[in-house]
């Protein structure tokens, strides 16, 4: 029975195909009959009457069949076009027009009017008089306090510890129900320059508040993909006490610039190149990826890189003018998802 | 079981506690942070608007309790008085707790929107793919190397260039000079690869400067790095500035090409000295570079260095290349002569210089 069924199904399919072919010919004939004005048409070409799409076929199997056939045809045409292009290029040789650059999201990014021109005087003036000026003039060296939200769990604690090894001159203190607003005056009194608060939710760190202390801006980030040291594959040994270099990639807009300066001011001004350690803040599409590497130059054109230390990605949520004050603070920039997340080509950092 | 009437003292629905079923009643109520004593007398039962009279109680427990007792002593039950006092205490506790909550940290609970979270995580993954972090880091580091941010640390890479250049230039110059240069090369190479050949440097400096400038220019064309360089130029420039401060130099030297600025200074000094005397200066480099070697654990594939350090194929291939070069220049006899003469010494001057700069 089954065999018969199979046979019949296969034969049925064949009959379907035959039918399809027959239909095509009929339709082509019909089209040919109808549109004699168009001129010579090959009678066996799979030409449907105008306005007919494959989706209008009611029979699912037939429809599927026609669709797969159409797809194959499209693929063939595409391949043929590619080959043709390639031949043309080879034929032209040097005269060939340059290859078209593929469109990427970063290519198609909506031009942000606040992108900073490297020679911009206004920006340079702003930066020489903003809250980080004292750091960049080497008048102050950073001293950082790392803390968490109340009652931190294991992962957060370990992340704090590892961060403190990455950032030189940093101290970890755990909060016991103290309000941030009470902590901040104490920090200022003890000459801390920066405060990092790692917020925790459901036993994983999920937020980062970076506050520059004397009266500097506070940035609130959303943290994700946190990898502690032991979770990083093929990592090097623990970082040494040397002061790392910093790499800040892709901070183009005015906002990005100020955030980049915030990060730069976390690390002391005199990197010890002997240590060969580098902390990277790479901004891509508003996501800032933090990595900590050890590098070694194998030649003038080759570098070996080894990842140590924790890694995480952060996304800016808000930038507030003074020290941490979520209610009455003056917000320079706030991420509004409904307005800002609509366009996939528009980035703010 | 529980009474919904707002004037109930205990909150239980019982005959004794019901404010509607008792013509003589009293409660204590918290209204906008103030505690009031409410009293009900039968005289006003027919006028609901003035049925309940209220007086403000002080937040001082003693005075409040005195007042309650005195007003309710003759008209109300003792149990009612006690209930009022108890409620008063409870309200005070409530006030204390709300005050604490307001003054202390206020945890803002934000809702987690599934769709937004999902979208964000996917965009993050795609951004990570597009970022090519390691490549960019490598690019940036090489950029820094070529613009001279690292100064004297990585001179060994420039040596290859210098050698090649110097070979071509040697042919143009005097034989005597050539001989000394060759000797210099031999000696340094035989000891350790990364010796400074200041003579060669002097000659090759222009070429190197040209090269580095070219390299720098090439790197500037990378778009991202333009912006980056500005941001962390603060770091780099400061280092370069330090280097420049140490050395009294021509204004012609670029700030970025710090390494060369050092060479320029030393060139001025050495122009006067004999070529042979320069061996001592080379010795300085020797020790300096020995220290570097320890720090870096890089093996500069020479016969003297242990083969145990070599592990990777890259280095082996390089070793082959370098060996070829060495064969051209090594002259062990000359080295022995120098050793006997006591001219190959370790001196610590160079190291101190480095510390100053860093």
Please indicate the percent range of residues of chain A in DSSP E strands (runs of 2 or more).
15-25%
Unreliable runs of chain B, pLDDT <50, ≥5 residues? Answer: 165-170, 184-318, 346-355
Q: Provide the structure class of chain B.
A: mainly alpha
Q: Which shape of chain B, going by the Cα principal axes?
A: elongated
The total count of helices of chain A amounts to: 8
Radius of gyration of chain B: 44 Å
Low-confidence runs of chain A:
31-45
Subcellular location (chain B): Nucleus
Main location (chain B): nucleus
Protein name (chain B): Ribosomal eL28/Mak16 domain-containing protein
Pfam families (chain B): Ribosomal_L28e (PF01778)
Question: Could you describe the 3D structure shown?
Answer:
Chain A: Its main location: nucleus. The complex is a heterodimer of chains A (349) and B (358). Chain A is of the alpha/beta class and 349 residues long. Chain A has helices at residues 2-34, 60-92, 121-128, 133-136, 154-166, 180-189, 254-264, 337-340, and strands spanning 144-148, 170-172, 194-201, 204-212, 218-227, 245-249, 277-284, 287-299, 302-320, 331-334. Helices cover 33% and strands 24% of the residues of chain A. In chain A, strand 1 (144-148), helix 5 and strand 2 form a beta-alpha-beta unit. The N and C termini of chain A lie far apart (68 Å). Helices cover 63% and strands 5% of the residues of chain B. In chain B, strands 1-2-3 form a three-stranded antiparallel β-sheet. In chain B, a hairpin with a 2-residue loop joins strand 1 (25-31) and strand 2. Mean pLDDT of chain B is 66; it is low at 165-170, 184-318 and 346-355. The interface between A and B is large, with 60 and 54 residues.
